[in-house]
């Protein structure tokens, strides 16, 4: 089934070299059965003619607020209401700035401000403009408003330089929209708590006990739940990645105790909890405030104490209506140990990944897991991207809520 068939798409085109790609994008939308209304900025018309665009879309192209000779008013409000989605491709740095700050001085930005539909933004510009803090801040703002940013690709740019700034290929923009319109909304109204990343347990101000968790698996689960309509609270240890979906509220913590405190606060309002973090089992008993000096003493002995078990603590607080999902990272006796944790921590489901499987576990972009339900049901998920593994895990969760 073609999910774009019959969809009303407002295609916004700004003034950039990549505007030539908008013609292919328009053709692909029409081919998919969508109805497309092109809105072009005044400088967009310097790069591509409205005649080409109106011939392909079978509709007059809108650019000005009024038609000069007839005085006919083009209603951005009507257009905003008509649209099932708005796609701005290419989006220039200037238009991104106007959209982010509500500077409604052309038809494209006024239509954007009136749109009630999802908005997809495909930036295109030179690499230095792209990475400028003001562009990045505008993109962050636009994303925080719930817009979907279709990241530009890396490659040769019109400036002759090479780097990130090429508008995503039209075929991929179409795929992005198809994925969006065929997505599942089966977590609407649910609140999900996800833990991700490592914990750092302080030895002194410059040293800690930690582990290799990158947060990729937990963040992928948070993104998947949010994309299906859940409100997500992501309690994250120190990682170098950020959550993109506006439905995700990230709470940054460092130690296991800090993670426990945030989880205990959030737990009562959550329908589902997914404990993907690699929580340190032990912490130094006596962290010190000054750096332990190599010169002044013998090799220090660090006494460890057991950290609280966050999953088990929440397992003890769990209500009938809540679902608690744990992970198990094992190096041997994998299945046995995972089943033991499932029972001991009062979990409803556990996701096992083994350090013995190539491409699975810490740091990598892929994972291979087995999912064990409390009711005995078991599923093996072959090696795939963490984003795809997250889909399978969330599918299993949704069957049980
Ligand atoms: O972050 P990535 O680089 O993408 O890697 C992903 C991952 C390997 C970290 C992830 O897939 C994973 O396996 N996470 C759990 C790692 C772990 O700590 O496993 P465990 O078997 O030690 O713990 C079992 C469960 O108890 C886990 O849900 C863990 O979050 C929880 N736990 C553990 C110790 C503790 N003190 N408190 C806990 O809540």
Describe the structure.
With 401 residues, the protein is α/β, with parallel strands linked by helices. Helix content is 32%, strand content 25%. It has 13 helices and 19 strands. The chain has helices spanning 19-31, 50-57, 76-82, 93-101, 107-114, 127-131, 133-144, 170-181, 216-227, 256-266, 310-317, 334-344, 386-398; strands at 8-13, 35-40, 85-91, 119-123, 148-149, 153-156, 162-166, 191-196, 201-204, 207-209, 231-236, 248-252, 272-275, 282-284, 304-306, 323-330, 349-354, 366-373, 378-385. The protein has an eight-stranded mixed β-sheet with strand order 12-11-8-13-16-17-18-19, sandwiched between helices. Helix 1 (19-31) packs across helix 8, helix 3 packs across helix 5 and helix 9 crosses helix 13 (386-398). It is elongated and about 85 Å long. Ligand PMT binds at residues 195, 197, 213-218, 256, 275-279, 281, 307, 309-311, 326-329, 341, 353, 361-363.
Number of beta-strand segments: 19
Q: Uncertain regions: pLDDT < 50 for 5+ in a row?
A: none
Number of helical stretches of at least 4 residues: 13
Structural class by secondary-structure content: alpha/beta
Strand content: 15-25%
The biggest sheet, with number of strands, parallel, antiparallel or mixed sense and barrel status, is:
8 strands, mixed
Task: Determine the mean pLDDT.
Answer: 94
Radius of gyration: 25 Å
Strand order of the largest sheet: 12-11-8-13-16-17-18-19
Bound compounds, please? ligand PMT
Residues in helix, %: 25-40%
Spatial gap, N to C terminus? 28 Å
- Gross morphology is elongated
């Amino acid at each position: 089934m073609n999910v774009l068939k019959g969809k009303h798409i407002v295609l916004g085109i700004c003034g950039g070299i990549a505007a030539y790609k908008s013609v292919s994008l328009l053709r692909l939308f029409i081919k998919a059965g969508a109805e497309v209304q092109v809105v072009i900025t005044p400088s967009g018309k310097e790069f591509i003619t409205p005649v080409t665009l109106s011939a392909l879309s079978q509709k007059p192209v809108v650019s000005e607020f009024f038609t000069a000779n007839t005085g006919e008013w083009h209603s951005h409000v009507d257009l905003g209401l008509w649209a099932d989605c708005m796609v701005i491709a290419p989006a220039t740095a200037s238009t991104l700035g106007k959209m982010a700050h509500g500077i409604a001085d052309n038809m494209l930005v006024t239509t954007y401000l009136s749109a009630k539909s999802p908005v997809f933004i495909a930036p295109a510009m030179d690499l230095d403009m792209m990475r400028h803090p003001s562009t990045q801040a505008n993109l962050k703002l636009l994303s925080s408003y719930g817009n979907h940013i279709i990241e530009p690709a890396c490659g040769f740019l019109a400036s002759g330089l090479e780097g990130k700034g090429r508008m995503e290929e039209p075929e991929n923009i179409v795929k992005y929209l198809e994925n969006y319109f065929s997505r599942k909304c089966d977590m609407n109204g649910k609140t999900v708590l996800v833990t991700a990343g490592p914990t750092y347990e302080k030895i002194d101000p410059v040293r800690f006990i930690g582990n290799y968790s990158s947060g990729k698996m937990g963040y992928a689960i948070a993104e998947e739940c949010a994309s299906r309509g859940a409100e997500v609270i992501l309690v994250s240890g120190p990682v170098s990645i950020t959550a993109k979906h506006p439905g995700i509220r990230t709470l940054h913590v460092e130690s296991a105790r800090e993670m426990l405190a945030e989880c205990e606060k959030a737990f009562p309002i959550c329908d589902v909890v997914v404990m993907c973090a690699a929580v340190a089992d032990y912490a130094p008993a006596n962290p010190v405030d000054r750096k332990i000096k190599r010169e002044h003493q013998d090799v220090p002995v660090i006494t460890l104490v057991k950290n609280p078990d966050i999953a088990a603590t929440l397992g003890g607080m769990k209500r009938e209506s809540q679902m608690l999902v744990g992970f198990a990272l094992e190096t041997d006796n994998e299945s046995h140990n995972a089943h033991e944790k499932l029972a001991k921590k009062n979990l409803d489901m556990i996701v096992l990944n083994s350090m013995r499987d190539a491409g699975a576990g810490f740091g990598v972009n892929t994972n291979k897991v087995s999912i064990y339900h409390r009711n005995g049901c078991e599923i093996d998920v072959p090696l795939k991207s963490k984003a795809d593994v997250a889909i399978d895990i969330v599918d299993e969760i949704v069957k049980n809520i």
